[in-house]
């Protein structure tokens, strides 16, 4: 469902993107080319700051937002998801936040009020709340990082994690092609 927010903003969805018909895309959302938005995802840009303004939620080209992901923002803060980034099933991305290019966010992870650098991998059920993560970090499953967390104990991404992230991107590019080819059947 594509719908306007109370301010009257409509999502801008590139014709080369695929948005499942069960997803809800609301308000000041920009979805670029070759993005896959899976079933039951919710991307909602509808809260404003004290001045009545809001920044957009941007999903950059070649990224994928998988089944049941929720993306929202407090007080109209920016959410910017970089190119070739994967947000896996049932994750919550809550702005303000910026996620770099070629990032993998694992199942059920929660990302809030932070910046995640290019090439990072955040595995399943991790929480990053108010802690900026420089490029190339690997957050193991269930790890929790918050403001003031020491990053000395956080490992760096290895080749195997980067290869896995690339496989996920490739698989979701194929889904965009496949579902777009089936669009006449829905």
From TrEMBL:
InterPro entries given in the database record: CA_gamma_LbH, Gamma-CA, Hexapep, Trimer_LpxA-like_sf
Pfam families: Hexapep (PF00132)
Domain of life of the organism encoding this protein: Bacteria
Family: Belongs to the gamma-class carbonic anhydrase family.
Gene3D superfamilies, alphabetized: Hexapeptide repeat proteins
The protein's name in its UniProt record: Carbonic anhydrase
């Amino acid at each position: 469902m594509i719908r306007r927010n109370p301010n009257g903003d409509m999502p801008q969805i590139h014709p080369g993107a695929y948005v499942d018909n069960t997803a809800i895309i609301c308000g000041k959302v920009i979805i670029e080319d070759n993005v896959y938005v899976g079933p039951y995802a919710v991307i909602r840009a509808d809260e404003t700051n004290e001045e009545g303004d809001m920044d957009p939620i941007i999903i950059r080209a070649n990224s994928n937002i998988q089944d049941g992901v929720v993306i929202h923002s407090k007080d109209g803060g920016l959410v910017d998801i970089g190119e070739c980034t994967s947000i896996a099933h049932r994750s919550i991305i809550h702005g303000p936040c910026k996620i770099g290019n070629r990032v993998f966010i694992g199942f059920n992870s929660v990302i809030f009020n932070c910046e995640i650098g290019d090439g990072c991998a955040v595995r399943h059920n991790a929480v990053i709340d108010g802690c900026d993560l420089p490029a190339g970090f690997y957050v193991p499953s269930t790890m929790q990082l918050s403001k003031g967390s020491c990053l000395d104990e956080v490992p760096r991404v290895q080749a195997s994690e980067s290869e896995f992230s690339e496989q996920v991107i490739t698989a979701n590019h194929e889904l965009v092609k496949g579902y777009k080819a089936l669009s006449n059947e829905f």
